[in-house]
TrEMBL record:
One of its GO terms (biological process) is coenzyme A biosynthetic process. It holds the Pfam family CTP_transf_like. This is Cytidyltransferase-like domain-containing protein. It comes from the Bacteria. Residues 8-145 form the Cytidyltransferase-like domain. Gene3D superfamilies: HUPs. The keyword GTP-binding applies. Keywords: GTP-binding, Nucleotide-binding. One of its GO terms (molecular function) is GTP binding. It comes from Candidatus Roizmanbacteria bacterium RIFOXYD1_FULL_38_12.
Amino acid sequence: MKQYNHIILGGTFDHFHAGHELFLKTALTIGKKVTIGITTELLYRHKILASTIETYAVREKGIREYISTIKKNSQEIKLISLTNVYGNSLKDMSVDAILVTSATKNGALLINKKRKEAHMKPLNVIVVPLVKGGDGQVISSDRIRYGDIDRSGNNYYKWLIDKAPLLLPDGLRTLLRKPLGDLIRGTYHQRKEIVHKIIHTIEKNNPSMVIAIGDIIAGSLWREGFQPSVAVIDYKSRREPLSKVQSSKLKVKNVRQYRNTPGTISQSVIKQVRVLRDRWFKDRHTQQLVIQGEEDLIALPSILLAPLDSIVLYGQYDLGVVVVKVTEEKKREAMNLLDKFDSG
């Protein structure tokens, strides 16, 4: 038996996840009629990485697809757009309850204050617990966009650290020669033309951040006036030390070097990729990760740890530069490859 005649709830519902599932399931369990408010840009524009929030249509589709798996035929469900916190709560007299989480409870208190001023009966406030992921932290769309977790709450960094050091099996080398993203073809002598194409792609996509892996790529970007968010370098090109002219743009005094044996991905490098990601978002100054050994494989953990809509650049020997646009699908692809590595 339903507890409430008409229950309302609202949210951004970006990158629909396990927490959203519990939220909606609770509403449909206790409400005869359910109104679901979906926030518009006016309400979410100040959220972290707001530019990577899915379109209204995509978010609405995610809600409808989940509802179709649990809805009872007799239940009335309505989806509305939200341009403010109140939605239909001050107009629809049939509403008798509001569903919130601890993070959104203040909105319900504000609604009840307005209802009291309008001589309306206050709504029953039902607080749904926040869902935690495998790392013990709350699953949120913010953390998904930032690149920390997937929609089930699996933490990419924790997974990498638990498995590290990662050792490349010989049988995987051929598979890794397949570009993980779009290949901009060209030779070393065409690097200026290549970097212009890369910069054009970056400007067109307006990524969350740019991670450039390799001295030639990073140095070429700098020479053309573009500052990557994070540059992963080892002062070498094709295993040979860079000339003084080539390395002059890259070298910074007193930068710690991180040991990464060829054919491996070390735990310390994984940690530093995340540190530099966070540092760049804090101060927006280019960060350098200097490798002692080999940086070739660092594209994989970089894809896994980068925020959604980032771009990761890495060289493909004798072919050109690979441009990886970081999506949830690309993260799964990188994770599947890394899962084939041996654990040290």
